[in-house]
Amino acid sequence: MSLEHILHHRRSVRFYDPDKEIDPETVKNCLRLSTLAPNSSNMQLWEFYHITDSETLKKLSHACLDQESATTAKQMVVFVTRQDLYRNHAGKMIDLETANVKRTSPVQKQEKRIKRWKLYYTLVMPFMYARFFGILGLFRKLVMLIVGIFRPTIYQVSEGDMRVVVHKTCALAAQTFMIAMAENGYDSCPMEGFDSIRAKNILKLPFGAEINMIVSCGIRMEKGVWGERMRLPFDEVYRRI
Fold first, then answer.
1. Residue 35, phi then psi, degrees to nearest 5
2. Which of 47, 135, 155, 223 keeps 20 to 30 A from 28, CA to CA?
3. What whole-number distance in Å separates Cα of residue 201 and Cα of residue 208?
């Protein structure tokens, strides 16, 4: 299928065929493709929980308010944000960028570029992602307000703002996953209606983890797609400047 065909084919499916299974390895590969989604500063503060165990599916379906998108699903994927791992991921990015510079940059420029990446991932990223009861976010906003007097800068740096950044990044991975699933002839439904406390307990997620969305997976039945797709007139949302 062409990309346009895939995007028209993909729908949020509310009821899956109970007689049609899906290959967990194909779903796993779609998740592997989802890691290619763009993400802020390449920090990749996400985890993907691929649920195939029948008992866990039942428990998770109940946590998803017993909606049919969940109860009829053959498998589920829980997209989880891990802002609490920012130091660990920043350290990995230093190693990756150092290797990248050594592989692609002229020798005479390598030291300067490696130093720049180390500064970015050892100081800037920890400064941006650190949390302490909202206090660090207020301090960052004050710093950026001062910087903004002299040059363009980013003002969305509160602890709430950075949480939004992490969730946006994870949602991009979820969308990439659903497109990959459609390309393989599989269906999905992103669910935001769920009991996050119960879902976290079922998956034994640590305190710092947050669930971005739960995506159910299967093969649609005709009644699983509720009517024709409706979108606002394009002219109402499109602005050319």
1. -70, -10
2. 223
3. 13
Residue 187 banded pLDDT, cuts 50, 70, 90: very high
- Which among 52, 56, 92 is positioned nearest to 75, based on CA atoms? 52
For the chain, what is the mean pLDDT? Answer: 97
Query: Among candidates 13, 62, 26, which has minimal Cα distance to 195?
Result: 62
SS (H, E, C) 144-190: HHHHHHHCCCCCCCCHHHHHHHHHHHHHHHHHHHHHHHHHCCCEEEE
pTM: 0.94
Q: What is the pLDDT of residue 1?
A: 82
Q: How far is CA 118 from CA 110, 134, 156, 178, in A?
A: 12, 26, 23, 35
Those residues with Cβ within 8 angstroms of residue 207's Cβ, 6 or more apart along the chain or in another chain: 84
Residue 47: beta bridge partners? 80
Span 105-129, average pLDDT: 96
Is residue 163 within 8 A of residue 86, CB to CB? The reply is no
**Where does 3-81+161-222 sit in CATH, by number?**
3.40.109.10
pLDDT at residue number 25: 98
